[in-house]
Design brief:
mainly alpha, globular, 0% strand
Length: 64
């Protein structure tokens, strides 16, 4: 996946990344999946803080 140039695109990118991970590992624990998405958004989005990345994940990758 490419870098995310705008914070506004982070939620869509999180959903796509989540879907890709689930395709490869459908039985991944939800917490582990959300942590992976959180890290991905934080490291790939320009100017994104860890708190902002976590907020995106909370909105797109709800823990069950």
């Amino acid at each position: 996946m490419n870098r995310i140039g705008k914070k506004e695109l982070a939620a869509d990118a999180a959903k796509l990344f989540e879907a890709e991970v689930l395709e490869l590992k459908p039985d991944i624990p939800r917490k582990e999946l959300c942590d992976m998405v959180d890290d991905y958004i934080y490291y790939q989005t320009d100017g994104m803080s860890k708190e902002e990345a976590h907020a995106v994940v909370e909105a797109t990758c709800i823990l069950n």
